[in-house]
Design a protein that fits this description.
The chain is an alpha+beta fold and 219 residues long. Helix content is 45%, strand content 19%. It has a six-stranded antiparallel sheet with strand order 1-2-3-4-5-6, covered by helices on one side.
Length: 219
């Protein structure tokens, strides 16, 4: 199925489309996705909505005098839940787009985009049994997997992930690009149709893929 067309000048659309494609690709490789972060977020949000709905219904049926003491506690609970939800999104999830595992190896990915820079940044944490935790900081221009018309092209994006992240490359070795390696820039197979406009939006600075590795001992 062809992906929907988006505006190549909208960073939010570029990021959201890429974020949606990432878990779809990983689950197709038999990565088991964890939904804990999403479940907690939905639980907090729905609980706050339920409290406001019940409070409104009680006030409508019983009147303000009969429910004013309940309403006070309901308002307090509502603000507590919304505060917890805000902290969960910005303090715990921190842009996480995928958490899961494959063959007892854990992986977590969080994405971000800087203002006015069409660069997709990805922080990856990989944990394997008996090995150090591997932290990867990846980045690549959106022009690598979006064409000039605003259509997402999966193959270049999947090659980038498989080539940059060893755990993904092991699950999908056919997508690993041995020529470019972990810091490969846009090649003839990439989607560079909007390179000129993207460079202009960043003040003419060249868009290049970048990567750095950091490892720390598992606790």
């Amino acid at each position: 199925m062809t992906s929907p067309k988006i505006s190549v000048y909208s960073l939010s659309d570029l990021k959201n489309t890429t974020d949606d494609a990432l878990p779809n690709y990983l689950t197709s490789l038999k990565f088991e996705r964890s939904h804990t972060l999403v479940d907690v977020r939905l639980g907090l949000g729905y609980s706050a909505v339920a409290i406001s709905g019940v409070t409104f219904y009680a006030d409508y049926k019983l009147g303000w005098d009969a429910t004013k003491s309940w309403t006070l506690w309901a308002v307090i609970a509502y603000f507590i839940l919304n505060g917890a939800l805000t902290y969960w999104i910005w303090g715990i999830e921190k842009g996480t787009v995928f958490t899961g595992q494959i063959n007892n190896s854990l992986i977590s990915m969080a994405s971000s985009v800087s203002k006015h820079k069409p660069i997709y940044s990805l922080k990856v944490h990989c944990g394997r049994p008996g090995r150090d935790i591997e932290n990867l900081d990846l980045s690549a221009p959106f022009t690598r997997w979006f064409d000039s018309d605003g259509y997402f092209v999966p193959a270049p994006f999947q090659r980038w992930l498989a080539s940059e992240i060893p755990l993904v490359g092991e699950a999908d070795p056919r997508k690993v690009d041995p020529e470019n390696g972990p810091t490969g820039s846009i090649d003839s197979q990439g989607i560079a149709g909007t390179q000129a406009s993207a460079d202009t939006s960043t003040g003419g600075a060249p868009l290049q893929a970048a990567r750095s590795r950091k490892s720390k001992r598992s606790p």
